[in-house]
Please model this.
Amino acid sequence: MLRMTTTAKIIASALTIAMLLILPFSSGCAGPQPLAKPVELTYSNFFPPTHLHSILAEQWIKEVEKRTNNQVKITYYPGGSLTPAAKIYDGVVQGISDLGMSALAYTVGRFPASELIDMPHGYPNGWVATKVANDFYQKFKPAEFNDVQVLYFHAHGPGVIFTTKKPVRQLEDLKGLVIRSTGVGTKIVEALGGRGYGAAQGEAYELMAKNVIDGSYTPREVLKGWKQAEVVKYVTGCYDVGNTTDMFVVMNKNKWNSLPASVQKAIMEVSQEWIEKHGMVWDYYDEEAMKYFKTFEGRELIELAKPEMARWVAAAVEPLISGYIKDKSAQGLPAADYEKYLRERVSHWKGKSPSTAQSVEWVKKELEPLAAEKK
Model:
């Protein structure tokens, strides 16, 4: 009996050791697995430090570090301080930064499938545009993003016309005006009779202040987020031709592939949660930006009457989208399917967004205090 007991103890001990060796590699183990040392990453963003989308990026970093048990450490570079807005995507591909946030429209022609998202599709607000942009990627997984790991997208509410000196009350008023715009926005401005001027948001304030340009085609958000209300005198609410701008958050592919699966999972979970937050920030900004704009003397919001708005749509929206479908279909992209899907998703998400009041309340409580600390 003694010999059997000893043998049993030896077998039990061996099984225990085997389980201890196997357990760390089992798929059911909770939480990220320990790394020899923390993974150090860099994050480049074109939004200035006090902008709420920059604040959200910082909060994303903190949440990722928390959920990976500080096995990931991220150094943040806002305001284009590491790579300028138009170079952020290529900077991620090349490894200048490991992560990046910027606008697809800053690299015209680089993202032919996603370009359609920016065109006017009746986006009522940034929350809906953000949901649609993420749905589009998940549905079609365009090859244009194969050189990075996509984390998520967000997109602003409908673009409007800003002018610094001349009010735009009808289509003819745009003729000859130099209007800052990017990507699809430039095509819309030119279809409406204006002259497009390619520049990032970080340049817009100075360009308008120095009268290099007559205005900008952009979301209302920048009146407050980029302080452009200080130089803009007129806002023309041309919402039916209002584009959006699809903005990416991506990661260097090789760096992503080097991460343990548990760390990848944590990053993707946080990213999914941040989609909703960015959508609410866009809606907050559109509301608060107009309030901020009206605090300046001599400012005017011009709302187009329905017949006038219909003229703008006929001039810009219909030809733009039909031209896109023709051109991109000839290049082998399922452009008609893209357009059909976008229309369906806008219809799906309309009416499902938090109310403007809810978005404003959430931002004021959760993010405004953080932004105030940076001023």
